[in-house]
Amino acid sequence: xxxxxxxxxxxxxxxxxxxxxxxxxxxxxxxxxxxxxxxxxxxxxxxxxxxxxxxxxxxxxxxxxxxxxxxxxxxxxxxxxxxxxxxxxxxxxxxxxxxxxxxxxxxxxxxxxxxxxxxxxxxxxxxxxxxxxxxxxxxxxxxxxxxxxxxxxxxxxxxxxxxxxxxxxxxxxxxxxxxxxxxxxxxxxxxxxxxxxxxxxxxxxxxxxxxxxxxxxxxxxxxxxxxxxxxxxxxxxxxxxxxxxxxxxxxxxxxxxxxxxxxxxxxxxxxxxxxxxxxxxxxxxxxxxxxxxxxxxxxxxxxxxxxxxxxxxxxxxxxxxxxxxxxxxxxxxxxxxxxxxxxxxxxxxxxxxxxxxxxxxxxxxxxxxxxxxxxxxxxxxxxxxxxxxxxxxxxxxxxxxxxxxxxxxxxxxxxxxxxxxxxxxxxxxxxxxxxxxxxxxxxxxxxxxxxxxxxxxxxxxxxxxxxxxxxxxxxxxxxxxxxxxxxxxxxxxxxxxxxxxxxxxxxxxxxxxxxxxxxxxxxxxxxxxxxxxxxxxxxxxxxxxxxxxxxxxxxxxxxxxxxxxxxxxxxxxxxxxxxxxxxxxxxxxxxxxxxxxxxxxxxxxxxxxxxxxxxxxxxxxxxxxxxxxxxxxxxxxxxxxxxxxxxxxxxxxxxxxxxxxxxxxxxxxxxxxxxxxxxxxxxxxxxxxxxxxxxxxxxxxxxxxxxxxxxxxxxxxxxxxxxxxxxxxxxxxxxxxxxxxxxxxxxxxxxxxxxxxxxxxxxxxxxxxxxx
Length: 772
Hints:
Layout: E1 4-5, E2 9-10, E3 14-17, E4 21-28, E5 31-37, E6 52-61, E7 64-70, E8 91-96, E9 99-104, E10 107-112, E11 119-123, E12 126-131, E13 137-141, E14 145-153, E15 160-164, E16 176-178, E17 194-200, E18 204-208, E19 215-218, E20 225-231, E21 234-240, H1 245-256, E22 269-272, H2 281-293, E23 300-303, H3 326-335, E24 339-344, E25 347-348, H4 353-361, E26 383-384, H5 390-406, E27 410-413, H6 431-454, E28 476-477, H7 485-499, E29 506-507, E30 509-510, H8 519-529, E31 535-537, H9 551-566, H10 568-581, E32 586-587, H11 589-592, E33 606-608, E34 612-614, E35 623-628, E36 632-635, E37 641-643, E38 646-651, E39 659-661, E40 665-669, E41 684-689, E42 696-702, E43 708-717, E44 720-726, E45 732-737, E46 744-746, E47 748-751, E48 756-761, E49 767-771
Parallel strand pairs: 22-23, 22-31, 23-24, 24-27, 28-29, 30-31, 41-45
Antiparallel strand pairs: 1-2, 3-13, 4-5, 5-6, 6-7, 7-21, 8-9, 9-10, 10-11, 11-12, 13-14, 14-20, 15-17, 16-19, 17-18, 18-21, 19-20, 25-26, 32-33, 33-34, 34-39, 35-38, 36-37, 36-39, 40-41, 42-43, 43-44, 44-49, 45-48, 46-49, 47-48
């Protein structure tokens, strides 16, 4: 939201006051408050009839500084508020006649009293950003009420990322971003998952702690500032530091919640009924059996909206005309080794048998006169479950428990963005703040009922909407994309932005949701989709099984599904890292290579975990141009070695793409490629890539409970590879990728393989020495 007319003038209708003269700094415990007048005070009489703005600085955990700006603090806040975690923090405060300083870990804020308003944020000795002259502002408008604004410095060459799943350009500089959840598809500035947190390539993050609309002007209103504003008398934000961008995300997710670890079975291929297609058990079996007959490993079958009868979403009852024996059908599908997902949303249509019950018991959101809020968009006469009412939440969860008892393993939690603001909530929550926050309560309720009934690390959603903290309830998917290359690229931008907003796991509708893709788009999107954290074939008006596109599509789905399943030891350990450190599995290049300036703007490629670079192909011809950082990289699929530090142009058929392994990597590859949930450590192969002299590579293999079973470390000293294994209770081997011969192996045996020498460790061996 813009308040200025150019650099000097204020827009008509706004009265802007900035802190101009620091009058006092008062320490209270582990915080201090700066009191600033909005004009220069020359004599005591100047203190009358004027505004005093306050800024309080504190720290909820090391390397995080909280900033609370306020004008009048007496306003009632009915909530909701984001749930934040705090840690014991050694806060150091110093103050003298020139100003004050608060230090938390390696992050500190300095207040200079001699310059009117001069606030700096530093990590060690490096200045990250600051708030200066005309930065903070209390703004009054006769027609719009009051606002609080902050402007933080944006340095030369500094880029801003994140702010949720945004499909606009990956670098947010120059953009206007409103944090307001909308059901807008993937082709506009609107977003399903709005997160008021941004990450800078200078190595810090800024989180604005407001559930309501936060309006950002990112190098737009003022081209050297990031501006954010909210309505009201207060503004609260956090500066989040770290030694690198990964540490910043770790600290942000310590504050707002770590992603849960999805169960291993969720990483396999999902197939859905699609949306508006007709289907019954025979149709479902036709496609499930067709996948099996073609050796296409399938892990999850998803029933989309029309598992319930039309006009009755949600009543949580199977359409008996199409599914007369739902329990038996689910049992028969599960006997084929499948998990089951069912579509839901938080809306109750008037024709649903649950509407009257919800209305009578007060479980639906109301209008000011006590009526049930209703409209006809999506479902005729639909109401909205009031998750601020504990009894309504328990009621909703109980309906889902019935489905779990029938055999449903997870839920696609669709919608949650179209939340009205002219309503009244059971607990008195501010409806404007609830617009974005509603999705947190909705997804938490569904996640909780799954976890309560299936156990910890067995709960998984397929969620569309989110706000701060929603990363705790994975998985999220990218919403309604179109079936073309442009939409495939915008989906990737959205996923990379969401990953830099604290979300670890993300998916998208392979080949696009709207309409039906051409066969080439389908096959290229299959490559991308099966090299994503979660992989789902889903669409709108047509089925997405590969043989409906062409026979080559069947081969592509088979090859890339089996590829992903074979990589589960590597991928599941990456998933554990995501749940512990708050890192995305699909990582923007800047996250892994923050010091490589070329990586700062890349949004057509990504790191899958820390060692695999993926460059999807976005054209029919198979041409791709991608960037490799320094070092010798190896294409995992072809074995071709490519020297990095430059841009590469290649052409690929549908069986390959740039899937490049970082030098000095040890990739754990499983012995099974038919399912995602197997014993990852049993007969695992550790593929070693381009280990340089004096370098060390390490791989960790965990089980499905995230417990470490095997850790292998390889160090190269000249022509000698020294291998150490911890926890080697099961057979394991090392594949020396691209090496055709070795002179000696001590502690194991060797044999030639298609990809390089295979060294099998002797039973119980914890050390190997390989002479090249």
